Amino acid sequence: xxxxxxxxxxxxxxxxxxxxxxxxxxxxxxxxxxxxxxxxxxxxxxxxxxxxxxxxxxxxxxxxxxxxxxxxxxxxxxxxxxxxxxxxxxxxxxxxxxxxxxxxxxxxxxxxxxxxxxxxxxxxxxxxxxxxxxxxxxxxxxxxxxxxxxxxxxxxxxxxxxxxxxxxxxxxxxxxxxxxxxxxxx
Length: 186
Fold this sequence. Notes:
Blueprint: E1 8-14, H1 23-33, E2 34-45, H2 51-60, H3 74-83, E3 86-100, H4 103-112, H5 129-141, E4 149-162
Parallel strand pairs: 1-2
Antiparallel strand pairs: 2-4, 3-4
Helix pairs in contact: 1-3, 2-5
């Protein structure tokens, strides 16, 4: 990031972490940019995001190549925060269900969000018209009792704090005298 060490009091990321690739490295970089006692807050898609689309794709494809992203579980994100030097991570999640009257509305919504697959192992080229029609049929077959195609978006919420370092760059322990009680006066 184009920021100096400890330059920020707060870092906020809203549904952009999934494009970063290496989450542990991203968390370490965010830790570098935060001041001691600075706060990190984020939202990110969780593993149940677009699970209905993955199920429909599994019905029409027999390949091991994945066409959709997989997202990191909130427990794993919390562990990564601790390993990156953050303290007291608080993680929560909710599932928001989106309803679509037809597949055209679903594809338009995904395209307008820029939710295109950047998976390195994805199949190259466009899906064939026959396979795309089969995918739309699988999605149509999943309609609920109201006739809607439903898509889940798992929203992971997280926040944590950067703690002051406990060791110097050379590995020497740091003792903070202001944190030591003065004891009783005699």
